[in-house]
Amino acid sequence: MRVMGVDPGLTRCGVGVVDGAPGKRLRLVHVSVVRTAPDEDHALRLMGIEAGIEALMEEFRPDAVAVERVFSQHNVRTVMGTAQAAGIAMLAAARRGLPVALHTPSEAKAAVTGNGRADKAQVTRMVTRLLALETAPSPADAADALALAICHVWRGGAQQRLAQARRSRVEEAARAERARLAARSRGGSVQ
């Protein structure tokens, strides 16, 4: 499975692409940061992030996209930009019909370090080790994007199977309900 991890940000949006499967060796495909200038018009910054993410999705063709779940921060302005960048990544994935998973920072940290409260240096060290990289990904946004991708490779498969099972149950219930209503409209007995 090829997963694109996105650590959303308005100034620096980390993007990491990893190939792997649970229990198998991970392989780095790509890592970079989509950057926008803080003094640029806000709408143009969002367009820049979209263009960067779209180009990377087109080039690397992920099977799934893992985005960091945005949570409340003290700085509302920062969280708004982060949420907007996350939305752009989700929209780009949806345009391609790709499944999107949201992982919290603590989930990604726990997946790669075993500690949901690990600091950025620990996450970077473990991402470097897990992907057998000669040099650590930099800046931290790049390492965080890779941690999200790794988290999804290891945990996302099970989550996707559970989600599919839920969808199947819902679809089955919907079919049963449509059959019940059709029988009712034909004058048959409804139980």
TrEMBL record:
Role noted for this protein: The RuvA-RuvB-RuvC complex processes Holliday junction (HJ) DNA during genetic recombination and DNA repair. Endonuclease that resolves HJ intermediates. Cleaves cruciform DNA by making single-stranded nicks across the HJ at symmetrical positions within the homologous arms, yielding a 5'-phosphate and a 3'-hydroxyl group; requires a central core of homology in the junction. The consensus cleavage sequence is 5'-(A/T)TT(C/G)-3'. Cleavage occurs on the 3'-side of the TT dinucleotide at the point of strand exchange.
Catalysis: reaction(s): Endonucleolytic cleavage at a junction such as a reciprocal single-stranded crossover between two homologous DNA duplexes (Holliday junction)
Species this chain originates from: Actinomadura geliboluensis
Gene that encodes the chain: ruvC
Protein name, UniProt field: Crossover junction endodeoxyribonuclease RuvC
Single annotated GO MF: crossover junction DNA endonuclease activity
Domain of life: Bacteria
EC number in record: 3.1.21.10
CDD domains to which the protein is assigned, alphabetical: RuvC
UniProt: Mg(2+) 1 binding residues: D7, D141
Active site, UniProt feature: D7, E68, D141
Pfam family, one: RuvC
GO cellular component, one term: cytoplasm
